[in-house]
What does this fold into?
Amino acid sequence: MQTAFDFGTPTDIALMRDRLRSKLSGYRPHNLREPIGQMIKSLISSRTKDEVSLRAYQRLVRRYPRWSDLAQAPEVEIEAVIAKVTFADEKARHLKAALGIIAARNADFDLSFLEDLPVPEALAWLETLPGVGPKVAASTLNFSTLAMPAFVVDTHVLRVLTRFGIVGAKADIAAAYARVMTAAADWTAADFSEFHVLVKRLGQTTCRFEAPLCRECPLRRDCRVAKSAGGKGGLLPEGHGAAYPAAP
It folds into this structure.
């Protein structure tokens, strides 16, 4: 069995997933939202803890039972509903603008047409919407009922992939997405969803932004940063502890 990553190959990604599976039990596929709902949830979740953004999304759905109601609501009113997420004013503005563009194409806010497009084209269309970047676009495709193979990269995931050497120290979300999608070209949407959840969980609990618990990491013997730090949790080489800001 391979015991060290070659970094960035299909074997690396599969081995990483298998080891995380063995240690991080309890993963279950989440309940899928319709694409427009998932886009809205992802758009307001940036730089915000999951539980906070989920409650904000639930308040939106209760306040505006139909997407047309939300699209017609004043920005200031939307901002008040999602006030506890970070940058609520900016997100309210982007949300209203994005819904306006979608409504002009499909009055019922149905994004199911995206499943007829190749994944890169579907991502590109979504990224033309205000406030929708690579993470939100991939979330809309992969975490919704579209169930399209697109890997969601947030700051937790980017940090873990960087520290393990799957991508370089200066890689951004787009570069990490491209590397994983290339290395796991035969994966299904469910595979990418699971890998995201497992890697994010590792980033939240063990491979933390500050004081990572390297000794507790199921991938420590193959992690470049952990090996260069001598396996001492929290003692990372210069530049690896502060490569990215704290994430939700």
Remarks:
- The domain at 35-142 is CATH 1.10.340.30 (Endonuclease III; domain 1).
